[in-house]
Design brief:
four-stranded mixed beta sheet, alpha+beta, six-stranded antiparallel beta sheet
Length: 230
C-alpha cells in the first residue's frame, strides 16, 4: 500500500491520455469489454459530432443526428448485455493505512448503468470506533472514499460518490461494527485506457493528499480530453 501511495504522489497520474500508454484496451481486464465498448462508440460519436459542426445542410444534419441516436442505442444495448455478465464479479480491494476499516469480502459489481457507470460494493468491519461526531473524536466515516488503481499503479481514478453505510445510522459506531463501502466508476472517453487496466480498489480518506492529488489529476485529464475532442 505504501508503494502505491508513493507512486501516486510522485507521478500524480499519467492522466490516461498523455501518451504514456498505447491505445489498445484489453478485453480481459477487471471490467471486461466495457472500456472497449465505451471507447469504440465514443469515438464514433465524436466523429459524428465533428461532422455535424461542419455541416450546413439541414437534411445532412438530420441524418447525422439520427445516426448518432442509433449508435447510442446500440452502445447502450451492448452495455446492458455486458452488465448481465459482469454483475457479481469480484474486484480485489485494499485499505489505506490511515483508514480504520477491514475488508470482509471483495468489492463486487452491483450494477452497470447504460452510460457505462459501474456501481461496486464490499462488506467491511470497523477496526476502531468511528462515526459522524463534529468534534473529531473518532474517525469521520463521511471521509471514506474509494480509489481505483491501474495495473502499473501509476494512474488512478476517484469518484466523489459512495462511502460507508451501515444497516442503522448512529453518531458513533463501536469497533467491530459492520457495514458496506460503495463506490462508482464512471467509464468515459478520457479514462478508458486506465479502466481497461484496472487492478484494484483502495479504500482511502478523502481528506488525504493522495485522494486530493488524484482528483485534481482526473479533472485536468478530463478537461484536456474534452479540449482535444472539440
Amino acid at each position: 500500500m505504501k508503494k502505491i501511495i508513493n507512486l501516486l504522489l510522485g507521478v500524480i497520474v499519467c492522466a490516461c491520455i498523455a501518451g504514456c500508454k498505447d491505445n489498445s484496451i484489453p478485453a480481459d481486464g477487471q471490467l471486461g469489454q466495457l472500456p472497449g465498448i465505451v471507447k469504440k462508440y465514443g469515438d464514433e460519436l465524436d466523429a459524428l459530432k465533428a461532422k455535424l459542426e461542419n455541416s450546413s445542410d439541414t437534411k445532412e444534419m438530420q441524418a447525422i443526428v439520427e445516426k448518432g441516436m442509433a449508435i447510442k442505442k446500440k452502445a447502450e444495448g451492448e452495455v446492458k448485455a455486458l452488465a448481465d455478465e459482469l454483475v457479481g464479479k469480484e474486484i480485489p480491494g485494499e485499505v489505506a493505512q490511515n483508514v480504520p476499516v477491514k475488508i470482509l469480502s471483495p468489492f463486487k459489481i452491483k450494477d452497470i448503468r447504460k452510460d457505462g457507470t459501474v456501481q461496486l460494493e464490499c462488506e467491511v468491519e470497523l477496526t476502531a470506533d468511528c462515526g459522524y461526531t463534529p468534534d473529531g473524536s473518532v474517525f469521520n466515516l463521511s471521509n471514506i472514499r474509494v480509489m481505483a488503481v491501474g495495473k502499473d499503479e501509476t494512474d488512478a481514478y476517484v469518484h466523489n460518490g459512495g462511502g460507508f453505510r451501515a444497516e442503522k445510522y448512529a453518531d458513533v459506531y463501536p469497533k467491530g461494527s459492520k457495514g458496506t463501502v460503495s463506490t462508482f466508476l464512471a467509464v468515459e472517453g478520457w479514462n478508458v485506457e486506465m479502466m481497461g487496466r484496472l487492478s484494484k480498489l483502495v479504500i482511502v480518506d478523502k481528506t488525504g493528499d493522495t485522494f486530493k492529488s488524484v482528483k485534481e489529476a482526473n479533472r485536468t485529464a478530463k478537461n484536456d480530453y474534452e479540449s482535444i475532442s472539440k
